[in-house]
Amino acid sequence: MNTGNRQKRVLLIMSSVDELGISGKQTGTWFTELAAPYYILTEAGHEVVFASPQGGEAPIDLLSMKAPFTTSYTERFFNDPVAMFAARNTRKLREVDYNTYDAVFIPGGYGLLTDLASDQHTLKLIKDFYETDRPVAMVCHAPAILRDVTLSNGEYLVKGKELTGFKNSEDEEVELLKHLLFSLEDELQRRGAVYKSKANWEPNVVVDGALMTGQSPASADPLAEALSEVLLK
């Protein structure tokens, strides 16, 4: 699908949930997975628009705003009034005409396991992007949203697809696996995905057609760069 946009437009979707399951732990979008793609894509000349299920201010995981999880991108974003305004004033996802966008980028964080992973509008959006050959880029926990995405032929989108995402052993390392609604690694493999991972916290990007996935926070930068290159072709 060619949107006809001279300046490529990327819809960046954040979770509206700030609590991890029933644990009561604060969560939201992982900061560097928001900040890195924002700057990498905009500096390449692309437009980035933030959206979330509820619109308005989308929560950022507080842990990801503290050392050692901060990066040069998060520091820059935090001190950038335009970027912070965008994160605090996201568009309501259902009110966005996503057919006018050339790609979608979904950062990780635990909040999305509660809202985006079970939101029928989000699942249809991903299906529509994928079936019109527009890139679907997802990093860290975001590929969990693919669990229930089905294509027009009734098959799971991930069936037979090479992909990656946050590992069980990475969740165990931060002692959060037991708090999750479901395991990304287990569920996607049950749907027929060819799950590929590297060592914990290593940058890892897997591209299979229009589906582009990154394993951990360190994968946000190379994933955004790979998406930017695709959009510049």
TrEMBL record:
GO terms for molecular function: glyoxalase III activity. Pfam families: DJ-1_PfpI (PF01965). GO terms for biological process: methylglyoxal catabolic process to D-lactate via S-lactoyl-glutathione. Keywords: Lyase, Stress response. Residues 32-228 form the DJ-1/PfpI domain. GO terms for cellular component: cytoplasm. Belongs to the peptidase C56 family. HSP31-like subfamily. This is ThiJ/PfpI domain-containing protein. The lineage of its organism: Bacteria, Pseudomonadati, Pseudomonadota, Gammaproteobacteria, Vibrionales.
